[in-house]
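for the recovery benchmark. tokens below, seq after
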């Protein structure tokens, strides 16, 4: 009996020890679960804020920066923010590889040029005919992509309003007419380049297309102006998702244009 009672006491103690261990692990798992849950919420909120709180990058101010002071600015949204229209992989490669290369190469090309301390990006582009082709290609590529990212948005104002809407209708007859003319410029650009909506010296809107990384600021284009909207029709901008179907990519572009941003550029161009 004694032995049996003793055994019972031992067994009860073991059960108690086991229960303590079980409670410890249960609490531990619960705490870990809570930490994981809170981390997921924080991570989700970060992604959400990155998408919704777009940085107010001012494309026109960047034009006045001296070449030596130019930065490789952050993309104003996360890579998959423009899904399902523009895919994550294209956006990431386009920004981190292509745009970054234009920036790096421009910095290298101008590194030993004393003008880089005094010359603004705008002055460089307006006098681009005086510079080597490497500066033209990389300076244009740097600016063009910066403008491109900043007139796109995951939460775009889908149509022009106010003065820009009226001006588009006045100059092209209707928004649809403008859209057709812009699409035609983008689709018929042979090889690589860009299509633009710009403001000319008389304050009038016009559509044009440029090869490679040229843009309407440059003194080598057929018609100069201030670009307020541009589409990149290099294959690197669409090939992963659309392969050779440039017209589909151009048609998709309208879903991510933030006309609020374009209007801001239009107002500054008119001043
Ligand atoms: Fe590009």
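predicted aa per position
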């Amino acid at each position: 009996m004694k032995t049996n009672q003793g055994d019972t006491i031992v067994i009860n103690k073991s059960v108690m020890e086991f229960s303590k261990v079980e409670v410890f692990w249960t609490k531990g798992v619960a705490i870990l679960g809570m930490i994981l849950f809170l981390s997921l919420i924080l991570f989700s909120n970060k992604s959400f804020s990155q998408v919704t709180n777009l940085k107010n990058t001012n494309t026109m101010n960047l034009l006045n920066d001296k070449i030596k002071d130019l930065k490789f600015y952050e993309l104003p949204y996360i890579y998959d923010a423009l899904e399902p229209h523009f895919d994550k992989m294209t956006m990431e490669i386009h920004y981190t590889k292509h745009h970054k290369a234009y920036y790096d190469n421009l910095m290298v090309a101008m590194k030993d040029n004393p003008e880089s301390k005094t010359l603004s990006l705008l002055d460089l582009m307006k006098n681009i005919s005086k510079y080597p082709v490497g500066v033209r290609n990389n300076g244009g590529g740097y600016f063009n992509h910066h403008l491109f990212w900043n007139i796109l948005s995951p939460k775009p104002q889908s149509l022009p309003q106010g003065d820009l809407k009226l001006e588009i209708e006045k100059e092209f007859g209707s928004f649809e007419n403008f859209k057709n003319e812009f699409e035609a410029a983008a689709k018929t650009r042979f090889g690589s380049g860009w299509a633009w909506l710009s403001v000319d010296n008389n304050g009038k809107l016009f559509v044009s297309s440029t090869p490679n990384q040229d843009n309407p600021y440059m003194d080598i284009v057929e018609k100069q102006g201030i670009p307020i909207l541009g589409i990149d029709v290099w294959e690197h901008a669409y090939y992963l998702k659309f392969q050779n179907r440039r017209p589909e990519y151009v048609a998709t572009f309208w879903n991510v244009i933030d006309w609020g941003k374009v209007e801001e550029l239009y107002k500054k161009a008119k001043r």
